[in-house]
Amino acid sequence: MKRIINIAILILTTVMAAQAATFTVEAPSRVVEGNKFNVTFVLANGEGSNFTPPEVNGAKLLYGPSVSHSYSSSWVNGKTSKSSSEEYTMTYKATQSGKCHIGPASIVAGGKHMSTKAVTIEVLPAGSSQPSQQPQRTPGAATPYSDPMTQSAGKEVTGNDLFVRIELNKQHVYEQQAVVCNIKLYTKYQISEFIPTIQPSFDGFLIEEIPVQAALNKVETLNGHQYYVATLKRCILYPQQSGKLKITSGTYDVGVVQFDTYQSIFGTISNPVEKKLKLENHSETVTILPLPEPKPTSFTGAVGKFNVTTELKPATGFKTYSAATCRYIISGTGNIKYIKAPEVNFPEQFDVYDPKTDAQVNDGAGDMSGKVVVDYTFIPQYAGEFDIPATEFSYFDPETGKYVTLNVPSHHLSVAKGEGQPSNHYRMKNMDIRPIKSGDLGLKKSHSYIVDHWTYWLWFLLPLLAMVALLLYYRKQLKERADVRRMRSKRASKVAQRRLKAARSFASRSDRNGFYAEMLNALWGYMSDKLSIPVSELSKDNINAELEQYGIDEQLRQESIALIDKCEFAQYAPELASDDMNAVLDEAAGIIDRLESVKRKKTIAES
Q: Among 12, 320, 339, 530, which is disulfide-ready with 418 (CB 3.0 to 4.6 Å)?
């Protein structure tokens, strides 16, 4: 009898990179005579047919093969990956001590015939103190994993049989120091359905996801019990504030497989029965220590261990009106992806463009490492001798608990006269004498004074009025710009429309994954700007509460939350989403227009 188990967890895209298929065997190294054990044949990244079980000496086949399928996909930092596996599990009983030989199994995948290696299992005598690789079934004992004989239909599935757990590599860190978080599913039962209902939350953290294969393809021992384990999410977290920050695992609807077992003339028959369960939120708390005071003036938030080097391109031969580059290379381990570009005071005689930053980082086992390249492009406008002054770069080392300041050396430039023309900004500075006008000057004799004409005084009055108007306008602008909440709310609609335009381009290419990812960016970003709440602190509950306080009616609030739910579901499982992308775009644009048309309700504090 075959059992087909589908696990769909956090699918963010369907454009994946293909991997070569492999066929391997997993078996225990030791078992005890008389005990049952599993041998699993795993076909990774391929679809198999014509599976041929191995020849076995020294053990009796009880049942199998049972077949399970798992799929996983991820999209991180613009890179996509996909993996799948088929598992054929055979359950045997060790019949005699000595050596049990498991021959090669074979399968056809992608038109190729593949075989596993033969393995040998040591069978210990009955009563041996060597523990079995798999728990034995005894009356009143806890449910062993992967044992249909004990997973009878109607039996209660307890919190020790199925749960979600958060694993953190550190419980106490500084601000911006990396915390590795793994959210894992532990189960003693086979899983037929796994649907997230509330996503994990990481309020107060910046998140860097690490691709994982979300499949029940590992076995772990926890508190003396063995479980099938799937890693649902793995990420590196960078805390943005001090205090105690809580991480939640989310909630999930799960279908577990139990068995109706009965005897027949053909032996023991197990009929799978599905039971629906709900996994509640699990949470962990991380204590975040504030960065010590005082902070160096050159500290911009870098936490970890870093080094800084600089170089000029070209190294020599600088000429006026020719572009050159001053490059700063910051390398090391830590929150390197979020490091701000250092401030450089170039000579006033240079035209300097905004810096261009390129981050080349890798997600390591416990932190990000790599380098950030910052290029400053400048154009000398004058010939002569100039210096790009020395600067400092400071970072906080969490291992020593101290700040480290690196001295970045200065650069001396000898600039020669080159071909070309100065930029508009400097053109007038290079011209100290205007040409003398010659020829007919149009001179004439006048018998009236210019001060007698009203137009003369008008030329004095108009600049005065213009200055007053400009001053009033400038004061109004200063007042508006000082109100950060108002400015963010004022720009919220424009920013959202730009993001919706990007989502429309994905819709035109029928890219559902990119479309719904961009839609979520647009909706969460709009709510953040509209309500003046950082994205890291947003949730559907506080969005609903803030919209109500803003003066939005209940129907429009419910439609806004429902649209976010729809996009989250479609982003997780785009193959299940049937909504027309253009209709979703029109709905989002309509909701934003209606939200913009509502005038903010004045609160007591504002009035």
A: 320
Is a pLDDT exceeding 60 seen at residue 44?
A: yes
Is 143 contained in some domain?
no
- Residue 469 is assigned to a structural domain of this protein: no
Return the closest-CA partner of residue 566 out of 584, 593, 539: 584
Do residues 284 and 314 share a domain? Answer: no
Comparing 390 with 133, the larger pLDDT belongs to: 390
Burial 524-537 (b: 16+ CB within 10 A, else e): bbbbbbbbebeeee
- Name 168's bridge partners: 181
Helix (H, G, I), strand (E, B) or coil at 310: strand
122 and 192 share one domain: no
Q: Residues 71, 91: one domain?
A: yes
**Dist. CA 223–CA 218, nearest whole Å:** 16
Task: Examine residue 247 and state whether it is found in any structural domain, yes or no.
Answer: yes
Residue 80 banded pLDDT, cuts 50, 70, 90: low
Q: The domain containing residue 580 runs over which residues?
A: 482-597
3 state SS of 165: strand
Residue 311 CB neighbours (<10 A)? 11
Strands (E), 145-215: 162-168, 172-174, 179-187, 190-198, 205-210
Final residue of a domain: which of 290, 309, 344? 290
Same domain, 226 and 330: no
The answer to which of 2-11, 359-368, 401-410, 509-518 has the lowest mean pLDDT is 2-11
Q: Are 277 and 162 in contact (CB under 8 A)?
A: yes
Q: How much is the CA Rg of the chain, to the nearest whole Å?
A: 34
Tell me, yes or no, whether 224 and 112 share the same domain. no
CATH of residue 115: 2.60.40
Residue 450 predicted with pLDDT over 90: no
How distant, in Å, are the alpha carbons of 45, 101, 105, 436, 443 from that of 439? 87, 112, 104, 10, 11
The pair phi, psi for residue 505, each rounded to 5°, is: -65, -35
Strand 48-52 relative to strand 36-44: parallel, antiparallel, unpaired?
unpaired
| 322 backbone φψ class: left, alpha, beta (φ>0; ψ -120 to 50) | beta
Considering the domain architecture, whether residues 126 and 166 belong to the same structural domain is answered as no
| 236-259: average pLDDT | 91
Which of 290, 321, 340 is the last residue before a domain boundary?
A: 290
Whole-number Å distance between alpha carbons of 151 and 144: 8
**CA-to-CA distance for 446 and 88, rounded, in angstroms?**
109
- Asked whether residue 269 is assigned to any structural domain, the reply reads yes
Give the integer Cα–Cα distance in Å for 222 and 121: 24
Instruction: Choose from 83-87, 495-499, 538-542 the range with maximum mean pLDDT.
Output: 538-542
Same domain? 30 vs 54 = yes
Please tell me whether the overall predicted TM-score, pTM, comes out greater than 0.70 for this model.
Answer: no
| Nearest-5° Cα angle at 237, 236 to 243 | 155
DSSP 4-73: ----------S-------EEEEE--SEEETT-EEEEEEEEESS-EEEEEPPPEESEEEEEEEEEEEEEEE
Reported confidence tier of residue 591, pLDDT bands at 50, 70, 90:
confident
Q: Which amino acid, 72?
A: S
Same domain, 401 and 499: no
